[in-house]
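User: Can you help me understand a structure? I only have the sequence.
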Amino acid sequence: MNILGIETSCDETAAAIWQSTANGGHILAEKIASQIDIHARFGGVVPEIASREHLTTLPPLVDSVLQDAQLDWSAIDALAVTAGPGLMGALLVGTAWARAAACVHKIPLMPVHHMEGHLLAPGLDGELPPFPFITLLVSGGHSMLVRVDAIGCYTQLGQTIDDAAGECFDKSARLLDMPYPGGPAIAQLAETGNAARFPLPRPMLNKDKLNFSFSGLKTAVMYAVRGLSDMDDQTRADMAASVEAAICDVLVGKSLRACRREHIKHLVIAGGVAANGYLRRLLDEKANAAHISVHMPRPEHCTDNAAMIAFAAAQRLQRGITPPEAWDARPRWPLAELA
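Assistant: Let's start by predicting it. Here is the structure, written out as tokens:
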């Protein structure tokens, strides 16, 4: 079965073809067109600009993916499209295009939850652990811990109550006069920094609840930066390393606590922040010490991509889960509703 996936939830236009086989499956072709350079001068994503870019980029991108896979539309068995959550205008571009394509080529269309795509993304490389497992989902606007008991059976254990980890990276980077997006910029600069120089707080790390809160950390960074008489290159690197360490300590600590509380020995990490090298190394180290197995997508599949959308649809179709008769794009869509 060949499934064409479409992703337009935010500022990446993506298309991919996942081929399901008896032994699992693999990616036949994929492409991602990023809008980072377009939005960087605004310091964040401008929804109207994002929608317009999707509108012009998506059709030729799909044609290119089909060409790379050496397939035509007659070889596509199903379409999968991100239906939410995300920016409403961006979602409407992708879902409207997918509805039209499915109608013209007479193939089924599966609406996919963006977060379900992320939490199943390790499966693209055969890294999906047996059920049940815990997933740490960390991206630009989301920080959450989810218990996964089966495809479509998700229990949210904790979530951010204010700024998510990705937002904290972006806002801290802005305070350090670094470019958008902040996560990669801070990670690169932190490589030469001393993470112990600035004693930043680890919000809610020692509280029993599994929720996250990063607004206090962002405020602590702001006051620390204001209190500096000189911001030379080494000081900026030290602050970047301190921010990165504080965020990652919280993410890792909460994830391992969720595994202990639920008596689960398998942990998945996914979402854009999951590409952070320091986070991946720290999680490996701490999880190994706790005898918990860690499963991660490749860094390129941590950020928004269409392969994970096609893969999530494949998992549903293989289990006999059919698309709903009526659905629409949803900027807000709780994971629990997938059950």
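Now, to help you interpret it: The chain has two domains: 2-120+301-338, 130-296. The mean pLDDT is 95. Let me know which part you'd like to focus on.
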